[in-house]
Amino acid sequence: MTLKTTRLISLDAMRGFTIAAMIMVNYPGTWDHVYPPLLHAHWNGITMTDFIFPFFLFIVGVSIAFAYSKRLALGKPKGEMYEKIIIRSIKIFAVGVLLNLIPHFDFTEVRIAGVLQRIAVVFLVCAILFLNTDWKKQAYISAAVLVLYWFAMALIPTPGAGKPMLEPGVNLAAYIDSILLPGKMWEGTWDPEGLFSTLPSIVTGIMGMLAGRILLADISPPFRANYLMAIGVPLILIGLLWAQVFPINKHVWTSTFALVTGGTAFTVLGAFYFMVDILGHKKGTSVGIIFGANAITVYVLADILSLVFYGLKIGGNSLDAHFVTGLADIGLPIKLASMLYALLFVAINFIPAYILYKKQIFIKL
Known about the structure:
By secondary structure, this protein is mainly α. It has one domain. The chain has 13 helices and 4 strands. The strands form 2 sheets. It has a two-stranded antiparallel sheet with strand order 1-2. The chain has a two-stranded antiparallel sheet with strand order 3-4. Strand 3 and strand 4 (317-318) form a beta hairpin. Helix 3 runs antiparallel to helix 4 (115-132), helix 8 packs antiparallel against helix 9 and helix 12 (319-329) packs across helix 13. It is globular and about 60 Å long. The model has no long low-confidence stretch (mean pLDDT 94).
């Protein structure tokens, strides 16, 4: 299959909108009053918020296909590419750990796992796979990982429980993390970005690479869109059927969660590609493109800015508390006030993103 590289507005915008959504759900006005779709599912199940992180990992996979297909076509030495892949992964991982240390820098309480850390690992593994395997091997590897992960989580007795368990902190992934994962856990005894559950999240990245190959294929654009959606819908259905015996669960990134979210990402990207790049409906995409141009930088900046908006006390209350209380005092429902603050925080983060974009400054970790 001949590959044809091109710049896709839909992909750039989808990356940016995903980061904007990630910031919105991470920084409400108050965690005590949040609309349910803007929260992660407590355990089994799925909400709108649960799609955001897998969408970003999927886009990482698509971006790998675009970036390294071009490098391979130009005959770049693999050794040089390996070096850059490893360095970039280390930088993203290190920034994630640093964010976990801010503001107290208490190394005895440092959390090694995290969102950026998982992105770093997924990028590292997927990029190396892309350079050394074709799409068929990547598909076989994905299927094997999802099935073996299911067998491990569903059939291997959880130590201490005497039987396979899939409960918060009481499951094989949590047990493995308790032995191998250093540092503080997000949930005390377990971590949603732990080691073992990173395996199926790598599959999410591989799905993105497969989608990238379709978008790069030398076929007519409508067929690319059709292929993406034709793959996405069956993946969702398989995931939903499989969920009858292996629940959809983001916290341990079950195989069914990977399929449902990955299939949805295929479908959304296909539809977005059709609407934006084929039909030319580009109105509103500029916001996503600006956020997406420095996606990880904006994510890091949001985490730093939150220290000011949540930590700075004025008159005994933080800035977010003043905002929510003020809107509640004039009669707005407190959940709506909390969401409006989250949208305001997204808008505030858009300002530096816009400045960087206008100055053509693209910070690549």
